[in-house]
């Protein structure tokens, strides 16, 4: 199984500061890109090295692909195709060098940073992450209903963080007037990585306030499948091993369900965006899917 990756400097805020140049591919492309090539150019592979990964006891081993063994001309061609694909399919963000790119749609768009190829990932760990997701979701929901625990556990954070302080003040006011909500919706995103030494699946963080990239990350999986459909035989990688990513449609379904539960045709789903939001297209993807519901 291969894991598709969208790269960003921040996994919480919806407008991370992206580095949009050849450095995005620095890990896989040690030389400057040269896209002045023709489709008739022969594409060859260097001797690719595949080694077995050490794994936890009872977890099947899987090969580790040597991305640096790929011929530079093939890399250049895949980069070119991936940038064309990103432009055609909306895998874009606003360019921070263009002043209005975070305010006016269609101005200063560039491709979102992404890994050129999907990363091999143990299927057992993938399934584990999927299985524990509902458990973490229920945990967050239960904690959100424990007013005293929230106020007490975040009391020190309140003193140091203005944003948290403001949220707790609103929470206190709702408690004072005995305001309760029977309809609740949580859109969460858990981030995981494999520990190199123990090969354990470790949760890095769980995003609850701003679970971004549902729209763009779904596109990254599609991009990787498209690249492997064209170059998979040369790389000995199977596009069918890239798992589907339906995060955007699931988020839209959840929002539509919450709206239905209110049973008020005048109710509205409000999207709160930051000023100069260069990640607006991720949000527009979600809004567009919601309108189709």
Automatic annotation (TrEMBL):
GO terms for cellular component: cytosol. It comes from Cannabis sativa (Hemp). It comes from the Eukaryota. Pfam families: GSH_synth_ATP. One of its GO terms (molecular function) is glutathione synthase activity. Coiled coil: none annotated. This is Glutathione synthetase. Gene3D superfamilies: 3.30.1490.80, ATP-grasp fold, B domain, Glutathione synthase, substrate-binding domain superfamily, eukaryotic.
